[in-house]
Specification:
The complex is a heterodimer of chains A (225) and B (458). Helix content of chain A is 41%, strand content 22%. Chain A is of the alpha/beta class and 225 residues long. A five-stranded parallel sheet of chain A has the order 2-1-3-4-5, with helices on both faces. In chain A, strands 6-7-8-9 form a four-stranded antiparallel sheet, covered by helices on one side. A three-stranded antiparallel sheet of chain A has the order 10-12-11. In chain A, strand 1, helix 1 and strand 2 form a beta-alpha-beta unit. In chain A, helix 1 crosses helix 5 and helix 2 runs parallel beside helix 3. The longest helix of chain A is centred in the last third of the chain and has 15 residues. Chain A is elongated, with a radius of gyration of 19 Å. Chain B is an alpha+beta fold. Chain B has eight helices and twelve strands. In chain B, strands 2-1-5-4-3 form a five-stranded antiparallel sheet. A five-stranded mixed sheet of chain B has the order 7-9-10-12-11. Chain B is rod-shaped and about 160 Å long. Chain B starts with a helix and ends in a 9-residue tail after the last strand. Classes of the chains: A alpha/beta (225), B alpha+beta (458). Chains A and B meet through helix 1, helix 4 and helix 8 of A and helix 4, helix 5, helix 6 and helix 7 of B.
């Protein structure tokens, strides 16, 4: 069973995070301040850490920086009420792996946690495969069942992001952040339109649909059941 | 508009000139009155002396009169008073007056002689006052005295006026100018100090010198008002932030519960009904995030990460991002790039602002319509314009659309938070860009100008 450490000073938010992680089959432990969090994270082997950016005493940035100094490379999801890109950059620069702004939807958080958990298993492949869909990371060529798919640069980046995380739910915000590199709320329908076009390209008539919509959350690419 | 300091110095020098002119006119009037009064007094003294002497001589025995006149002239070699005795035909008989003054009434009263009587000592005609009296035996007795004393007094007065004016006006004006420079300098300091306040940084204050003068008094009043405005703004913002913070926690929980319930439901029909609920809550949460985002932007702490920006690059990204959405809605989405001056800013924020504008334009434009994203230059400088062929923004609503939560009557049925343009406005303000809302009835046009907004929008 994978273990998660939740460093969060607000009990209500912490309960919410722990409950959500439990629901997704992680055993989550909660500490309420930065010093304890740092001790716990350094002494035990966790698979993922969620870290509040603003903590009493030792602040989230200091915790993650200290962790990285001690050679602890557990993935850290920083959670913060500060949505500014500056803050995000500071958090990621200090050693955080992803940054989530409060208020967040729980499934947004778990989607990010899932991605971070998988990141620990490095992918050294140069060709990504999902069912009969192939994407060559070197030549940027895509084909489905042997048939070449002409992709626009954006469509390629979108498909690559989906396929790198095949089987994982990716929220619209995560897609917007990774594919376009912007960190704000673009509204849902723009991303949906981009996914729709990609879907029409890779799902030819008679073929099973590989990109599935996860109701209320986002998208996942996976072989059809 | 002229700079404030120029207006100020013009005002002070104008005041100084008016004051100087009034002062000079007053001095002339004052000295004129003094001169008039004193010459009248001196004339009176001279006149009574002359009349008294004539009256005295007239009472002398007629036979001794000629001797008395000659004796009186002899004891007055400096010619303080001139005397003359003429026979009935006007021929001189005695004294130092060589000719009988013409046209003078022989009434024993003193009169001024402008043309001058020959001065017995100086030897040329001078202005004088004279008395002529016809004696009972037909002879005429004349007494005269030059009036140079009176004229001299006038000259002294005029010289005094000249010196007085030049000695007071020149240093006065000079001193006034020098003294007015210090307040002008302080006004300039205030002007500089007020610039960030005008840009919205309400934490700044006007400088107070501590001298307790009128400028300090004024600065104090303004500062007190600023403190009050800052407090009120803080309160409003605090209330907004608190509402957003307080409400988002129960919202988050509600959403989590609904989501979990939905995951545990079996039938797709039940799940679909929850979909609507989740979408509603997502919209609510997006609105809260937008509110907090505006609040964060308005704190104005971001300018630190301004960098040289590739405007065309950002515009291309926006075009690429929204292209498919416009196409899906059957709209033409055109990108028109003109060379733009280099500018500094935050590309992330500029993208966010343009994305909001383009997103709005696409939302309000019917199928078959057109949305344009273009950069251009005009006499007021460069700008980026987002235009559409939708219903446009009515003239009266163009200011209001930038307000938080404002939604035009026509847009009530369209999904949206009413916060998009507020975010654009906050981002523009942070960059010092002007926002111009316009259009010509065939659609809306919003310009983001790389400088202060101008009122003219086409």
């Amino acid at each position: 069973m994978q273990r998660a450490l939740v460093i969060e000073d607000d009990a209500v938010t912490a309960n919410e995070i722990v409950a959500e992680l439990d629901l997704h089959g992680l055993s989550a432990e909660w500490v309420a301040n930065g010093e304890d969090g740092l001790d716990r994270a350094s002494s035990a082997d966790y698979d993922i850490i969620t870290l509040d950016r603003m903590l009493p005493g030792m602040d989230g940035i200091d915790v993650v920086a200290a962790l990285r100094n001690r050679g602890v490379d557990t993935p850290v999801l920083m959670i913060s009420a500060l949505s500014d890109v500056d803050e995000r950059v500071r958090g990621l620069r200090a050693g955080g792996d992803d940054y989530l702004t409060k208020p967040f939807a729980p499934d947004e958080m778990t989607a990010r946690v899932e991605v971070l958990l998988r990141r620990r298993q490095p992918q050294a492949r140069s060709v990504l495969r999902v069912a009969d869909l192939e994407l060559d990371l070197v030549t940027h060529a895509a084909n489905r069942a042997g048939q070449e798919l002409p992709l626009q640069p954006t469509e390629y980046r979108l498909l690559e992001f989906l396929m790198r995380h095949a089987g994982q739910v990716l929220t619209r915000t995560m897609i917007f952040e990774h594919v376009w590199g912007f960190h704000f709320d673009p509204g849902t329908n723009v991303i949906d339109v981009h996914i729709g076009r990609l879907r029409r390209k890779i799902d030819q008539p008679g073929q099973s649909s590989l990109i599935r919509t996860i109701r209320g959350s986002g998208y996942v690419i996976a072989p059809a059941d | 508009m002229r700079p404030l300091t120029e207006v100020w110095s013009a005002a002070t020098s104008r005041l100084m000139l008016i004051y100087g002119a009034l002062f000079a006119v007053w001095c002339v009037i004052l000295l004129g009155a003094v001169q008039f009064e004193s010459s009248r007094y001196l004339s009176g003294v001279i006149d009574s002396m002359l009349q008294q002497r004539i009256a005295l001589l007239a009472r002398t025995e007629p036979s001794a009169l000629q001797g008395a006149v000659e004796k009186a002239v002899a004891i007055d070699p400096a010619g303080v008073m001139w005397l003359g005795l003429f026979d009935a035909d006007g021929r001189p008989m005695a004294g130092n007056v060589n000719a009988l003054p013409a046209d003078l009434p022989m009434d024993g009263v003193a009169h001024a002689i402008e043309s001058g009587t020959l001065h017995p000592v100086v030897g040329r005609p001078v202005r004088s006052r004279a008395v002529v009296m016809r004696l009972p035996d037909g002879r005429r007795l004349v007494a005269a005295k030059d009036s140079r004393t009176i004229d001299g007094l006038g000259a002294i007065m005029r010289r005094g006026l000249l010196w007085g004016l030049s000695l007071t006006l020149i240093p006065g004006l000079l001193g006034g100018f020098l003294l007015s420079r210090a307040p002008a300098r302080r006004i300039r300091q205030m002007q500089r100090a007020a610039e960030p306040i005008q840009r919205g940084d309400l934490s700044r204050r006007l400088p107070v010198s501590g001298r307790g003068d009128e400028i300090d008094l004024l600065a104090g009043i303004v500062n007190t008002m600023l403190t009050e405005i800052e407090r009120l703004m803080g309160e409003v913002k605090g209330v907004c932030d608190n509402i957003a913070h307080d409400l988002r926690t129960p919202l988050t929980h509600l959403r989590a519960r609904l989501y979990r319930t939905q995951q545990q439901l079996k039938g797709p029909e039940e799940a679909a009904s929850l979909d609507v609920c989740l979408a509603d809550i997502d919209a609510l949460m997006a609105r809260f995030r937008a509110l907090l985002r505006i609040s964060e932007l308005e704190d104005g702490q971001r300018s630190a990460c301004f960098q040289p920006m590739d405007l065309a690059g950002v515009m291309r990204q926006v075009h690429e991002f929204y292209g498919p959405l416009a196409e899906d809605r059957g709209q033409r989405f055109e990108l028109d790039l003109q060379p733009m001056p280099a500018t500094r800013g935050d590309p992330q924020l500029l993208f966010e602002a343009l994305a909001n504008l383009v997103g709005n334009a696409i939302k309000f434009t019917p199928a078959g319509g057109m949305v344009t994203l273009r950069s251009a230059n005009d006499s007021d400088g460069g700008y980026i314009e987002v235009g559409d062929s939708g219903p446009g923004i009515p003239e009266g609503e163009r200011e209001a659309v930038l307000l938080r939560f404002y939604r035009g009557d026509g847009s009530r049925s369209t999904p949206g938070s009413g916060l998009g343009l507020s975010i654009v406005s906050a981002i523009a303000r942070l960059h010092g860009y002007g926002l111009e809302v316009g259009g010509d009835g065939h659609g809306a046009r919003i310009r983001m100008r790389f400088g202060p907004a101008t009122s003219a929008t086409g």
